[in-house]
Amino acid sequence: MPDTFPLVVFDLDGTLAETAGDLMGALNHVLAGDGLPPLPVDQARSLLGAGGRALIRRGFASAGRPLAEERLEGLFAAFLAFYEAHIADHSHLFPGVVASLDRLEAQGYAFAVCTNKMEGTAKRLLEVLGVAGRFRAICGQDTFAVSKPQPGALLDTIALAGGTPERSVMVGDSRTDIDTAKAARVPVVAVDFGYTDRPVQDFAPDRVIGHFDALDEAVADLMARRSPEGTIAFKA
């Protein structure tokens, strides 16, 4: 599909931005409301990555407190309210993100975000961080009828951005991202500095990078491996 621009689809938390401090702050606000002690930020990498509701469930489990499912939506509303009021107290883009976007854009790439954050929250964070305008689509847990790791979340994000799966690459930091990309048959680059309780290499992404300086080469290599039929050979 020579007339279709290449697209890089990014996860957000732990991939584009270091957000653990603010997310854990919101979780600890919710835990404190139940009389539970705060969890340290260094536990974030084993708790984050599946959205706010999953974070609350995992936080209560880590604190040893059962959580009745009927309470979840109320706790999630409190979590969101606190988080949105403190959305970038500590959050920042990872080193090299903007320079990498600049280089890829100069080569003709477009960008999108597929996250398990709520869409409005994701857009607000990226606006505060100064990069929202770089993305053709910013899609969250509530954008479509499905969310990651369902492949439709990624495929619908690609479609909304005006791209095609055959000319797209996913960039993420967790098993959720890698499983999503594999199910959608889109190659995936994993960063090794994000939020995962196991080394990201364990989940067999197509490439692993330790800094955004290496993203351009990884994406170009995966794009170059497209077959004449327009598909890309990647790890099963």
UniProtKB/TrEMBL annotation:
EC primary class: hydrolase
InterPro entries, per the entry: HAD-like_hydrolase_sf, HAD-like_sf, HAD-SF_hydro_IA, HAD_2, HAD_sf, PGP-like_dom2, PGPase_prok
GO biological process, one term: DNA repair
Required co-factors: Mg(2+)
Residues annotated as binding Mg(2+): 11, 13, 173
Keywords on record: Carbohydrate metabolism, Hydrolase, Magnesium, Metal-binding
A Gene Ontology molecular function term of the record: phosphoglycolate phosphatase activity
Name this protein carries in UniProt: Phosphoglycolate phosphatase
